[in-house]
Description:
Elements: H1 2-13, E1 19-23, H2 32-37, E2 42-44, H3 49-61, E3 65-71, H4 80-88, E4 95-99, H5 117-121, E5 128-130, H6 135-147, E6 152-156, E7 176-178, E8 191-195, H7 200-208, E9 215-219, E10 221-222, H8 227-234, E11 239-247, H9 252-260, E12 268-274, H10 285-304
Parallel strand pairs: 1-2, 1-3, 3-4, 4-6, 5-6, 8-9, 8-11, 11-12
Antiparallel strand pairs: 5-10, 7-9
Helix pairs in contact: 1-6, 3-4, 7-10
Amino acid sequence: MRNNLINWLIAKSRSDNRIFLLTADLGYSVVEPFQQVFPDQFINVGVAEQNMTGIAAGLATEGFLPFTYSIGVFPTFRCAEQIRNDIDYHNLPVVTCTVGSGVAYGNLGYSHHAIQDISIMRSLPNMVIATPADPSEVVAILDWYYSNPCPMYLRLHKAGEPQIPHSLKGLKIGSLQHLNQDIVRANTPAICIIVIGFLSKRVLEVAKDFPFQIDVYCLSLWGQPGREEFAKQISRFETIITVEDHILEGGLASYTMEIVSTLDKNIKVIPVALTSETVGKVASEKTLLDPLFEKLRSLLYGLNR
């Protein structure tokens, strides 16, 4: 995902010198290709994420399209005030790019767990949350941003994300992307799974293990600006299972339940999310995420009875 980001930035910068990439002394072996080709559009601010965010906001006020880049928790929690006051308040087209979503840096412990980042970012009224399911969606999301400049939080996994064979149609804020389009149904399904980020591939694999077929969707662009569209998208379901590498509070499940509460419909939301127990654990990403998929399997077995 992060390589697709850098490749996109390089390609766009060849014809548009408004693009700037800023890093807080992180991203080595990833950002250098951009730095080498466009040194005048690259800034390493050092270990100073708040300053990086302020500089990006200043560049945006002058007509540039700045992208900040760092590990999940650093440009979000550490820069919450600057993002809130400098970027979102003024509706500036700064993209806050983070790598290491969820527990991708699990072996480094809680200081590197990005499991509450969405709750901060989606509380901002102008912020668009971008959670691509695979590398191709990163490009689609960036193309959308280029046509619709806005404050954006681009939440990327660390590395090695598989490609999912799906067709991106009508990408817009709040729209669901159908991941297992090979399912053929005579009637509108009553149950679905909605997943964010790179977990999509594994969720598809879990869903295929069951005798009944269940539609799986990813949510690539969302946040407060997408509430109305998302409400339309989910109104046809009776039961929604949400899957995320984030805690329940403030994440995808919370977002879905908030919107369901505004609808005159009886929709059940079943969250599959990280728990507070994750906070105290230092382990591999697989070890920390396995309980999510165990819970998902248990839920699907229960629905099949």
